[in-house]
Specification:
Helices cover 0% and strands 44% of the residues. It is an all-beta fold and 295 residues long.
Length: 295
């Protein structure tokens, strides 16, 4: 805006240093604007806009002259937090007695929003009454964005009947730190807690996987009476109210009790009958379960 009193002959130059949390596509800039010094990913840099026409001062009886607006569109980095301040400065070749209003700033608060998800599966869906039975749980962890997860926690309280053996993490994107703790090998009823820092967009087709190795102890009787064992994993963010979809923040895998037996039937004769002798025909049968089936 030219507050006068004289007209301002062009060029009028606007210089605007862009935050490293803002990405501007040069192809979207309006006529007269350019950007330089961006990172390889297209963030930051210095925006320069030049108005080459005369900007008229205020007319008689007015204190405000003509104005011209440059509309700039940018994208906020998924890793941005806190606030982003942007300042622009206008200069002209025409003498300006008041430089105090030649710069302006605006501050924007960055809202965090990420759709975190966890899907729990198991290497088996049922247990027999025999043991020990080793198997694995798998936690597939996702973040469909748009913001990164700065501190994401996944917890899994394992069933009290099962012995925790070990865990592995796979599929970690570059720069993501993920560790698990809280479960001791050889103990039962453990809670495994995994924390991931700076989790970027992670799709369901290529998730972060936490594989948990457990064992059902020998001599367990929960399967023989048909008892189902359910186990639930949960995912949370350290940023309050940042997940708009809580429906996929927990996942349960159920092991059904499925007793199985291998029945065998044996048939025999106590004696060999003689045709026409009148000797009795006395077969005997026995039923046994010599080999219980173990999945």
């Amino acid at each position: 805006t030219n507050n006068g009193p004289a007209d301002s002959a062009g060029p009028i130059t606007i210089t605007d240093p862009i935050s490293n949390n803002i990405s501007i596509d040069p192809s979207t800039l309006p006529s007269g604007c350019s950007i330089s010094g961006q990172t390889s990913a297209g963030y930051g840099g210095t925006l320069t806009c030049v108005y080459n026409q005369t900007l008229q001062g205020p007319g008689q009886g007015s204190t405000v002259g003509a104005s011209y607006t440059f509309n700039i569109t940018g994208m906020v980095s998924p890793s941005a937090t806190g606030t982003i301040t942007n300042s622009a400065t206008a200069t002209t070749t025409t003498q300006d007695p008041n430089l105090q209003n030649n710069s302006a700033s605006t501050t924007t608060t960055v809202n965090i929003s990420h759709d975190l998800g966890v899907v729990k599966t198991g290497s088996r869906s049922s247990l027999t009454s025999e043991g020990p039975v080793p198997f694995t749980y798998n936690l597939a962890i996702t973040n469909t964005g748009p913001s990164i997860g700065h501190t994401v926690t996944v917890t899994d309280q394992l069933p009290s009947q099962f012995v925790f053996n070990s865990y592995t993490i796979s599929g970690l994107p570059s720069g993501v730190n993920g560790t698990c703790s809280g479960a001791t090998a050889g103990s039962t009823g453990q809670t495994l807690t995994c924390v991931f820092n700076n989790m970027p967009i992670v799709s369901s087709s290529n998730p972060i996987n936490v594989t948990i190795h457990v064992t059902a102890p020998e001599g367990s009787d929960y399967a023989s009476v048909g008892t189902a064992i359910s186990n639930t994993a949960n995912i949370t963010s350290a940023t309050p109210n940042s997940d708009p979809n809580s429906a996929n923040n927990s996942s349960t895998w159920t092991l059904s009790g499925n007793p199985q037996v291998d029945l065998a039937l044996a048939k025999c004769l106590d004696d060999t009958p003689v045709a026409g002798s009148g000797s009795p025909y006395q077969p005997s049968m026995g039923c046994a379960n010599p080999n219980p089936i173990v999945n």
